[in-house]
């Protein structure tokens, strides 16, 4: 039922507080509510932190409990946590949310235009396929072609949103 | 005898700075002293205040003043350079020649005279209109987010919601703004700073020359105020219909042609200026970044 546990070396994401948005590794457990936590590669000093503000990630590092910062840093860099984190969907969603909030009026217009164009293309393809199927009598060609068209358009939209 | 007495009394009651010189025969000493007093500042006298017990002298401060004859020995510290400089006071009077015979030729005149009038209040009372400037002298402010070339969103007036290019601020503080006309049908027009949202999108207007005759007077609404008839006809004489003049058209063309070229360089900007701004569900202005 539970897949992520609080353990020594578990990398956690801080959701609120002064270090909101950073990653830390759990070095030791103090008591029921707090952990000794350290984020040498993410700019968090070694400190006690309540579990409530931590959200566990999938990453676990290997170091002994109460290991000093140098060891934590070594383990972190060995596992390349920063890059792995950036590649997760979680981090990408956060980034996308931030980008959306920063959009200016002009950006919103461009995204609107891009979405419109994409939807038009998709609809066009759908109509084509519907026509074909209604003529030929329902052959299972629709899903493949629709997927291909969608992927081509998604990349366009992401590029425009990033601008 | 007196001279010999003093060295004995001096030893226990020595005051700092009054050291007896090397002992010499009394006569020589007195002669030397007498002779040398005039050459040097005088050899130091032994303490004139005999000691009763350690730290306690026989005579009081004022008695000692008299005994040491300080009334005729008053020294001042040498004048330092600063004091010398301070002493240089400016001239208070000047002598001027005076004409006419039997007049004494010249007068001594004060350079800085006493005031001829003393007001009843120390600081004169300020007028009620103090600090109140007419509109033409008011300070005009412009928001830092509005610079020439910024795209603004008009919020009021018949062009509400339209996105428009800002040109310059006029003398009354209103903003001179243009569509351009071919893009969104907004002519060269004035807009009020407060009723405008400044976006962060900017068009490069660095080389654009705006004609100098576009001032507030050019844009001001014209009102006829010569009702020769009685009150019944006043509403007819006031011009309600705006008439487009040739000058406006030519000015519009002159400005827009320069700006359109810049707009074309930015992709999708033309379409952006053509569109209008609106709010919909889930869109909150305080959360939007413009």
From TrEMBL, chain A:
Q: Where is this region: Disordered?
A: 124-163
* Source taxon at top rank: Eukaryota
Q: Which Pfam families match?
A: Ribosomal_L14e
Using the record for this protein, list the coiled-coil segments as residue ranges, or answer none. Answer: none
Show which residues constitute the signal peptide. none
Cellular component annotations (GO), alphabetically ordered: cytosolic large ribosomal subunit
The record's GO molecular-function terms, alphabetically, read:
RNA binding; structural constituent of ribosome
Query: What InterPro entries does the record tag this protein with?
Result: Rib_uL2_dom2 (IPR014722), Ribosomal_eL14 (IPR039660), Ribosomal_eL14_dom (IPR002784), Translation_prot_SH3-like_sf (IPR008991)
Query: What spans are recorded as compositionally biased (Basic and acidic residues)?
Result: 140-156
Q: For bias kind Basic residues, which ranges apply?
A: 129-139
Record-annotated Large ribosomal subunit protein eL14 domain positions: 46-119
**Keywords, A to Z?**
Ribonucleoprotein, Ribosomal protein
Asked whether the keyword Electron transport is assigned, the reply is no
Picking any one GO biological process from the record gives:
translation
**What family is this?**
Belongs to the eukaryotic ribosomal protein eL14 family.
The molecule here is called: Large ribosomal subunit protein eL14
The organism named in the record is Halcyon senegalensis
- Gene symbol here is Rpl14
From TrEMBL, chain B:
Q: How does it assemble?
A: Component of the large ribosomal subunit. May bind IPO9 with low affinity.
One CC-aspect GO term: endoplasmic reticulum
InterPro entries from the entry?
A: 60S_ribosomal_eL6 (IPR000915), Rib_uL2_dom2 (IPR014722), Ribosomal_eL6_CS (IPR049633), Ribosomal_eL6_KOW (IPR041997), Ribosomal_uL6_N (IPR005568), Translation_prot_SH3-like_sf (IPR008991)
Q: Which GO terms describe its biological process?
A: cytoplasmic translation; ribosomal large subunit assembly
Q: Member of which family?
A: Belongs to the eukaryotic ribosomal protein eL6 family.
Cite the Pfam families for this sequence.
Ribosomal_L6e, Ribosomal_L6e_N
Annotated Large ribosomal subunit protein uL6 N-terminal domain ranges read 38-97
Q: What is its main location?
A: cytoplasm
The portions of this protein that span the membrane are: none
Where is the stretch described as Disordered? 1-59, 81-106
Report the protein name in the record: 60S ribosomal protein L6
Q: Which SUPFAM superfamilies would you find in this protein's record?
A: Translation proteins SH3-like domain
- Single GO molecular function: structural constituent of ribosome
Q: Which ranges are annotated Basic and acidic residues under compositional bias?
A: 1-27
Give the location in the cell: Cytoplasm, Cytosol; Endoplasmic reticulum
What organism is this sequence from? Halcyon senegalensis
